[in-house]
Design brief:
Layout (H helix, E strand, L loop, with lengths): L1 E4 L5 E4 L9 H27 L10 H37 L13 H23 L21 H10 L11
Antiparallel strand pairs: 1-2
Helix pairs in contact: 1-2, 2-3
């Protein structure tokens, strides 16, 4: 709806005749927000599948980490789409508002834009945290999960213990 009031205090509102008759930046902002919703949904699904505590996707924790990192990429793309749409819309609103020769209805920045900026910031931070936490170059991924200490007295124990931990004590040092 578009509303206007006159000097007598009468408020007149009318519906837009067509969604396609709206300005181009409004249509582009709507398209970016729809893309943001779709990317956020894909990011949520990928993150839920990539969590180590979920049973979806099996026991391959390296693959699960990569899927969670893909969810982080989706969240970053969602934040960028939201930030672009909200900032572009706010720029056009302020440009029309401060233009003294603009003949149309002048809008002001409302609560929806602030919510959009906050959600875009949170999506960007969350996506970056997922990417940092789900790195593929982690040395602990090479160990079998869950890691168990080998038992005493086997050849595997002495070879593993000599490679991983320096042994500065003799056999009778603990007595």
């Amino acid at each position: 709806m578009s509303c206007a009031d006159d000097s007598a205090g009468t408020l007149d509102c009318w519906y837009f005749q067509s969604l396609l008759a709206l300005p181009g930046y409004v249509q582009a902002s709507r398209a970016l927000m729809i893309a943001s919703i779709v990317l956020g949904t894909f990011g949520l699904i990928a993150t839920l599948v990539g969590m180590q505590c979920s049973k979806i996707g099996g026991e391959n924790y390296i693959l699960k980490g990569r899927i969670a990192a893909l969810g982080g990429v989706f969240f970053i793309l969602q934040g960028l789409c939201t930030m672009t749409a909200v900032s572009w819309y706010a720029f056009n609103i302020t440009q029309d508002f401060f233009d003294p020769l603009y003949p149309g209805t002048k809008f002001e920045i409302g609560e929806g834009l602030y919510i959009g900026w906050c959600s875009a910031t949170l999506a960007l931070i969350g996506g970056c945290c997922l990417l940092c936490a789900c790195g593929t170059g982690n040395k602990q991924e090479k160990r079998p999960y869950p890691y168990q200490t080998p038992t005493r007295g086997t050849a595997y124990t002495t070879s593993v213990m000599s490679q991983e931990q320096p042994n500065h004590y003799g056999r009778n040092s603990y007595v």
